[in-house]
Design brief:
single chain; 498 residues; 2 domains; 6-stranded mixed beta sheet
Length: 498
């Protein structure tokens, strides 16, 4: 059986004392194994990155950008292969995998502009013959720890900009679907990246803890669940590292009585069930304002969901695929069971889908649950599956209060024809990313991604302008060149420009 290894100093190593099975979630069968890095292996990757740092730091930004331009071309040329690897290990349908890859490529495109992004700031004559300027210098060796649900896009949120800014990088991808991540790292090597600038170590908690405790790692980026994000952030900070840790979500869509209901249903279908609901921006709760809106929403959703197709990644006619593991399948079904037991109504039941030829796959069908209340377990938790819950309220303010009360504040949206209501919503809702008649308000590559409350730990968001600031440190320089023959007197008071 094929064993996936690590990319260290430009070479693939499969040596490991421990391995883990990598499943094809469509078939339920083991497709590969992945080597799990020991502490020594991770430390080797860090040492290699540290050795490569001085030369890469001193490489002109335009030359770093040229590597990124070639990398973008290779990602596009190998798109079919990348999407196939995503499908085999994540289960994402080919068209969804292509969308993931495209959003990742857009972050590479943004990193191609790094010469402009690193230009710094300059002020002449802040005082007599005194100039002052700020430079943005790389940090050194930085690390990324990425989740299973976007094995290509999320790593591309991190290492292209970090490397373009002059850092070297150690990436620890999810051990559940590592092949696509390892493949794109090899493409960056092919694009001309010097050995050691990007290293990939596959592993579990042992690898993560090594990165968090090693003094040579200057910053850590993480995307995953909130409990792990909190642990990553606290541990990294305790060890003197800069950290951004993106956690979980419970994204709500308010459906107003005046909403274009057909449009809202179409948007909710894709946002709730795309990628099997395994994305932190999935819309998992629809908050209907008024019973008339609730009844119309549920009726139209029930009808629209009758055509949903769940199945294997290789069939482009399918709308979404399996969830990542058998254990997660059981967890999602458990939340549906608990909702029903606690008084909610399962309108469309996806607990036992039959996918012909893939009976052992980890499938959950699209599920719609009505009459959900904030007290029940399925509402409070991040289900991370193809489940949409409907909560009914009487007013828009009640809907907003419901959203604000939740511990997560990642994304939200409102469906309405009322501009005043939309403006009030966007101005006052306590959530980091907001959509107006847009169900997945994921920022484009030249803005930054991040939620509020327990959806983000750290001061800077992912990718976009915040990524430049996260992966660099500001140095401000003030200099004076006195005129020849002019000798300054001694000054003991604080210098001012008065």
């Amino acid at each position: 059986m094929n064993t996936l290894g690590h990319l260290i100093n430009g070479e693939i190593s499969t040596e490991a004392t421990r391995t883990q099975d990598v499943y094809n979630p469509s078939t339920g069968q083991v497709g590969r194994q992945v080597a799990l890095a020991s502490k020594a292996t991770v430390e080797e990757a860090i040492a290699v990155a540290q050795a490569a740092y001085p030369a890469w730091r001193d490489t002109p930004p335009i030359k770093r950008a040229r590597v990124m331009f070639r990398f973008k071309e290779l990602l596009e040329a190998n798109a079919d292969k990348i999407c196939e690897l995503i499908g085999e290990e994540h289960g994402k349908i080919a068209h969804d995998a292509a969308g993931e890859l495209q959003r990742g490529i857009e972050n590479v495109e943004y990193a191609c502009g790094v010469p402009e992004l690193l230009k710094g700031e300059h002020s002449k004559n802040v005082g007599p013959n005194i100039d002052s300027w700020s430079e943005f210098q790389p940090l050194g060796v930085v690390a990324g720890i990425t989740p299973f649900n976007f094995p290509v896009m999320v790593p591309l949120w991190m290492f292209p900009m970090a490397i373009a800014c002059g850092n070297t990088f150690v990436l620890k991808p999810s051990e559940r679907d590592p092949s696509a991540t390892l493949f794109i790292a090899q493409l960056l090597q092919e694009a001309g990246l010097p050995n050691g600038v990007l290293n990939v170590v596959n592993g579990d908690k042992e690898a993560v803890d090594t990165l968090l405790h090693d003094d040579r790692i200057k910053a850590v980026s993480f995307v995953g669940s909130t409990p792990i994000a909190e642990y990553i952030y606290a541990t990294a900070n305790a060890n003197g590292k800069r950290c951004q840790a993106l956690g979980g979500a419970k994204n709500h869509a308010i459906v107003m009585p005046d909403a274009d209901m057909d449009n809202a249903v179409n948007q909710l279908i894709g946002a709730a069930f795309g990628s099997s609901g395994e994305r932190c921006m999935a819309l998992s709760v629809a908050v209907a304002v008024g019973d008339a809106a609730g009844d119309a929403l549920v009726a139209k959703m029930r009808q629209a969901m009758s055509d949903l197709k769940v199945g294997a990644y290789s069939n482009r006619d399918n709308d979404f695929g399996p969830v990542i593991t058998k254990q997660h399948q059981e967890k999602v079904v458990g939340f549906i069971n608990s909702a029903e037991e606690q008084g909610a109504t399962v309108v469309v039941d996806g607990r036992n889908p039959r996918v012909e030829g893939y009976e052992a796959g980890f499938f959950v069908g699209g599920t719609l649950i009505d009459n959900v209340t904030p007290e029940i377990e399925s509402y409070q938790a991040e289900i991370f599956g193809p489940v949409l819950q409907v909560v009914r309220v009487n007013t828009m303010q009640e809907a907003m209060d419901l959203i604000d009360a939740h511990e997560y504040g990642n994304g939200t949206c409102i469906f309405t024809r009322d501009g005043e209501a939309a403006r009030y919503f966007s101005d006052n809702i306590q959530v980091g990313m907001v959509g107006i008649n847009i169900p997945l308000p994921v920022p484009v590559a030249y803005h930054s991604f991040g939620g509020w409350k327990r959806s983000l730990f750290g001061d800077l968001h992912a990718y976009g302008p915040d990524a430049v600031r996260f992966y660099t440190k500001r140095k401000t320089i003030t200099q004076r060149w006195p005129s020849a023959g002019v000798r300054e007197g001694v000054e003991f008071s604080m210098p001012t420009m008065k």
